[in-house]
Amino acid sequence: MDEMGRSTWLSNCTNTSNPASSADYKCRAIFYGRTVAASLSIVGCCLVLFMILVYRKYRHFAHRMILYLIVPSIIISVVYVYPHQLKDDSLYCQISGFLINTCTFTQRIQILFIVIHLLVFTVKERRPKYIEHVFVGIFCFVPPLISSVPFIGKHSHYGYAGDWCWIKGESKYENYLRLFCLYFWLLLFIVVEFVCFSIVIFKVRKHIKHIQALSINGPEDKASIRRYKKQIYPLLCYPLVNMILATLTTANRLQNWLYPNNPDFALYLMHSIIYPLWGFCNAMMYFISRDTLREFNPSSVWEQLTTRRYTHTSQQHLVGTPTEKGREPSAINPVSATLDNLESSDME
Q1: Nearest CA to 235 among 206, 196, 187?
Q2: At 119, is the secondary structure helix, strand, or coil?
Q3: Count of other CB atoms within 10 angstroms of residue 216
């Protein structure tokens, strides 16, 4: 965005040290919308982390994938909720721009991995060995590496990019950086996710209808249906919601690219609210499960906390009842026990 583009209403949001007290209502609307959305995401993500840790759901692959998705959402939300003055030469703007690009890229690649996992699981009904290690290795190193490219050169290309910090759009080179560092991959991931998502839905519906049509009531077939419902259905929500959110936020950047001197307030407002709201939406997807809602009851949480403490003490005095290391007796938490049984059927 050149100087002519900056002479619009966006300059009012950038030239003030406190956007919340800006005379321009557009600046205040964007600031408060972004702050409220980011705050909701922080609260929602912290609740998800709390539930995963208290109930030890991190022992299950599906919940670990959700945990990996929540962490970058918290970082993005913290960056957006922190009040600051946007300046190209500020260290905060450089770091926050890098973190926003890295965490956004990480989120998108994690959603792609979730879809790939669902596709492999529906086709082979098992999870390949070491697939999680491959996933973690890729999204821990690839996004930071690609996000470091704008630092190459005499000056960093991170800075003021609208009403937040990201890769500046003051030249064609920086527009190409935006494309290479995020949007090319984002659009590619959306296409791949849509194809894989369609295949997963088709195969799951076909498999369940086949079992129901034959009226099979064997234990293996019932376990197969339960496995689909426990391992696939909860994760299907995440790619679908994130594809919708990614499409909406891309609309603003597309408008910036086509009309750099005429920023659209409605698109900026939508972008500023939806972008930090990803963490909150992921949290809502996590809590749509009835089992999770029952576990979220204060009495259930307190019982889980006290039971874990009691179990840790009593297990030292148990004789003749061997328990797998790092796991509690299944009677303590039936939901976790069921997930354990389902996950143990996967050939890891």
Answers
A1: 196
A2: helix
A3: 13
Distance of CA 58 to the CA centre of its chain: 16
Which residues partner with 167 through β-bridges?
158
CB 100 within 8 A of CB 93: no
CB 70 within 8 A of CB 45: yes
Contact call for residues 143 and 106 (beta carbons, < 8 A)? yes
Region for 234 from its dihedrals, namely left if φ exceeds 0, alpha if ψ lies in -120 to 50, beta otherwise: alpha
Per-run averaged pLDDT (10 residues), the chain, 348 residues: 48 58 73 90 94 88 88 90 65 89 92 85 76 91 95 87 78 88 89 85 77 65 65 69 80 79 84 88 84 83 76 50 42 35 41
Q: Show contacts of 343-348: CB within 8 Å, 24+ apart.
A: 343/60, 343/61, 343/62, 343/231, 345/223, 345/227, 346/61, 346/121, 346/126, 346/127, 346/231, 347/126, 347/127, 347/129, 348/61, 348/127, 348/129
- pTM of the predicted structure, to 2 decimals: 0.76
What does each C-alpha distance from 309 to 302, 303, 305, 314, 331 come to in angstroms?
11, 10, 7, 9, 15
Distance CA 31, CA 163 (A): 8
**Which of helix, strand or coil describes residue 192?**
helix
